[in-house]
Structure formats: structure tokens, C-alpha cells
């Protein structure tokens, strides 16, 4: 039974549009993966995971705290408060070492997935997508553990000096979470979305193969 020329042309047109759409989505996924990797670096080094609130006692120091440093600000004669603290070393604060390790592993996984984008020239697209998807799932899992473990580490000397004696595990005292911690939580959702999209793109690659290539692949699987 022969296939009509109109149906053949429609099939080719559909395949062409499908290839263009898949490539566009793949490029968007790669750009979002690179942005996610940059966000991971910001989350790791920024001292804005938690900080003092505006309702602190008058004259009390204000500041923020991250995984590697404490930045404390005191009022001065100038309109801008005098702030001290910086990233003086690559050693995390003692109470946040486990959190920093998890964020570091997450950072390694997502940057490895970025480097794996070069494999598109040497390996099949489906294989690269699957490798990147598993790396992004690992990054999201480690970041989720870090976000859960961070509040449990609040009962520390650094937190007591900045947030008062009422601080404890899952109790920030006179402080509240800041934008870096919220960005870390959003990074978990971003990793889950990127990994899911990578798995979908990997499963759709077979639909982009020519019919003769599909037949050869099917025969090889049966053998």
C-alpha cells in the first residue's frame, strides 16, 4: 500500500517543525542550566543567608551571615553604617561546614552538567541529556539537604552573637532568613525543572531520527 505524496509532504513538514522546536527548547534548556550554575556560585559565597531584622533593639549591631563569613554593621556618624566582614578565607564557618559541603557538591554537579554540553559533538543527544539530567538531580538533592540542614545549625556562637541568646535550632531569634537562602530554595525547584526537561528531551530524540535509522536501532536492540 503506497502512501500519498500529500501525506508524505505533511509528515516531512511535521518532522521539520518538530526538529526546530526541539532544538529551540534544547538551547533554552542549556541557557537556563548555565544561569543555574551561576546562581549556585552566588548562593555559596554570599553572606546573606540569614540576618538581623528591623525590630532589633536600639544600638544593637545589624548584619548578615552566610556559610563563609559574618558581616556586622554598626551605626556611625555617616548616613551609611560601618560594615565589617568579608570572604577572608575559603574555610566555611564551623557550624555551617556540612551545609557548605552539600552546597559545594551541588555546585560541582551543576557545573559538570554545563561542561557536559560539549559532549553534543561527540555523543548522541539523548545520552548527553540523560547525563545532565542525573547531574542536575544530584545538584537539586544536595541543595535540598543543605536548605533543610541550615536551620538546624543555627544554634552556634556566630548566630548567638548576631541574633541574640534566644536563637536555637529552627529558631532564628532576632534574625530572619535573607535572599540567599530563598535563592537556594528556588535553586532546588530550578534543578528539578531542568532535570525533568532534560529527561523529556532525551526521550524525544528517537522521534528525530530518520526512519531507516530507527529500523537499524530496533534490530540491534532485538539482537
UniProtKB/TrEMBL annotation:
It is a multi-pass membrane protein. The chain crosses the membrane at residues 21-45, 99-120, 132-151, 179-202. One of its GO terms (cellular component) is plasma membrane. Keywords: Membrane, Transmembrane, Transmembrane helix. InterPro entries: LHFPL. GO terms for biological process: sensory perception of sound. It is found in: Membrane. This is LHFPL tetraspan subfamily member 4b. It comes from Seriola lalandi dorsalis.
Amino acid at each position: 500500500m503506497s502512501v500519498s505524496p500529500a501525506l508524505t509532504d505533511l509528515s516531512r513538514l511535521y518532522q521539520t517543525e518538530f526538529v526546530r522546536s526541539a532544538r529551540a527548547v534544547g538551547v533554552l534548556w542549556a541557557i537556563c542550566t548555565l544561569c543555574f550554575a551561576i546562581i549556585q556560585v552566588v548562593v555559596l559565597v554570599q553572606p546573606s543567608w540569614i540576618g538581623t531584622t528591623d525590630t532589633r533593639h536600639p544600638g544593637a549591631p545589624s548584619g548578615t551571615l552566610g556559610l563563609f563569613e559574618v558581616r556586622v554593621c554598626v551605626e556611625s556618624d555617616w548616613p551609611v553604617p560601618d560594615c565589617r566582614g568579608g570572604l577572608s578565607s575559603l574555610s566555611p564557618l564551623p557550624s555551617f561546614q556540612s551545609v557548605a559541603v552539600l552546597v559545594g557538591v551541588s555546585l560541582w554537579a551543576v557545573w559538570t552538567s554545563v561542561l557536559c554540553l560539549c559532549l553534543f559533538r561527540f555523543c548522541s543527544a539523548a545520552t548527553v541529556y540523560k547525563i545532565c539530567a542525573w547531574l542536575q538531580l544530584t545538584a537539586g538533592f544536595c541543595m535540598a539537604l543543605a536548605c533543610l540542614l541550615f536551620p538546624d545549625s543555627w544554634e552556634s556562637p556566630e548566630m548567638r552573637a548576631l541574633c541574640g541568646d534566644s536563637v536555637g535550632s529552627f529558631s532564628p531569634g532576632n534574625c530572619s532568613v535573607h535572599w540567599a537562602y530563598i535563592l537556594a530554595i528556588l535553586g532546588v525547584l530550578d534543578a528539578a525543572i531542568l532535570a525533568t526537561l532534560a529527561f523529556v528531551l532525551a526521550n524525544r530524540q528517537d522521534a528525530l531520527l530518520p526512519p531507516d535509522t530507527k529500523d537499524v536501532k530496533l534490530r540491534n536492540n532485538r539482537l
